[in-house]
Design brief:
Blueprint (H helix, E strand, L loop, with lengths): L4 E6 L6 H11 L8 E7 L4 H8 L4 E5 L16 H7 L3 E4 L2 H6 L4 H13 L3 E6 L3 H6 L2 H12 L5 H6 L1 E4 L13 H18 L2 H6 L1 E5 L7 H5 L6 E4 L8 H5 L3
Parallel strand pairs: 1-2, 1-8, 2-3, 3-4, 4-5, 5-6, 6-7, 7-8
The protein binds glyceraldehyde-3-phosphate.
Subcellular location: Cytoplasm
Function: Involved in the gluconeogenesis. Catalyzes stereospecifically the conversion of dihydroxyacetone phosphate (DHAP) to D-glyceraldehyde-3-phosphate (G3P).
Pfam family, one: TIM
């Protein structure tokens, strides 16, 4: 069974609501395709204008984060119901920037992943090693731990619909893309890890993205790899070139 590619933009903390509308109007015709799922993960305040602006297009809107409680005294957080109420289908969980600057751990990532599934939101679960870990030769050990904890308590049926984003931290926003071989090797390792946790059918179904300085030049070779099912794109998702990344073939 061929997996449909999923190409997502992670806008991070960029774009005001009015800039959001402008950017989506520019990108809408450029990202039109039936070959891939196209997702724009945007800051919370941009979600509603993004949904409005993308109406009638193939663009799905995702959130960049979500809390794992239903509601209550959690100042500044966004509840899953708030996302589903307006039509959000995806949420990025455990991005390395959330782990580094906002103290997210494998355990909070797991709670958020479970909560996302409970609400029918597809989590894009991020993992990835630091440069030191790569140099120490522990890349796969580290990532396997991240993935195993993130998926604790997740059923095989749920896992089949999940998205994992492999993002080597040293390649994020640095202009240093992992080589195609490095990216394929880790994505293949993640798929094997999913097969160990669940079974071959789940491993075959789950979609694994690569992220880290993806651009329109590197995307075609990366996305042609057998275990790379698309990308999670930061900087290049804010430019018209994102259209070329989406239509990489
Ligand atoms: O989530 C996206 C990644 O952090 C990649 O960002 P980048 O494409 O700007 O390196």
């Amino acid at each position: 069974m061929a997996r449909k590619k999923i190409i997502a933009g992670n806008w991070k903390m960029n774009m005001t609501p009015s800039q959001t509308v402008e950017l989506i109007n520019t990108l809408k015709p450029l990202v039109a395709t039936e070959d891939a799922d196209v997702v724009f993960c945007v800051p919370a305040i941009d979600i509603i204008p993004a949904l409005e602006a993308s109406k009638g297009s193939n663009i799905e809107i995702g959130a960049e984060n979500m809390y794992y409680e239903e509601k209550g005294a959690y100042t500044g957080e966004i509840a899953p119901d708030m996302l589903t109420d307006v039509g959000v289908k995806y949420v990025i969980i455990g991005h390395s920037e959330r782990r580094e600057y906002f103290a997210e751990t494998n355990e909070t990532v797991n709670k958020k992943v479970l909560k996302a599934f409970e609400h029918g939101i597809t989590p894009i679960v991020c993992c990835g090693e630091t440069l030191t870990q790569r140099e120490q030769g522990v890349t796969m050990d580290f990532i396997r731990q991240q993935v195993k904890i993130a998926f604790l308590g997740v059923t095989a049926e749920q896992a089949k619909t999940a998205v994992i984003a492999y993002e080597p931290i040293w390649a994020i926003g640095t202009g240093k893309t992992a080589t195609t071989e490095q990216a394929q090797e880790v994505c293949c390792g993640i798929r094997k890890c999913i097969a160990e946790i669940y079974d071959e059918a789940t491993a075959e179904a789950i979609r694994i993205q690569y992220g880290g300085s993806v651009n329109d030049k590197t995307a075609p070779e990366l996305f042609a790899q057998p275990d790379i099912d698309g990308g999670l794109v930061g900087g290049a998702a804010l430019k018209p070139d994102f259209g070329k990344i989406v239509n990489w073939k």
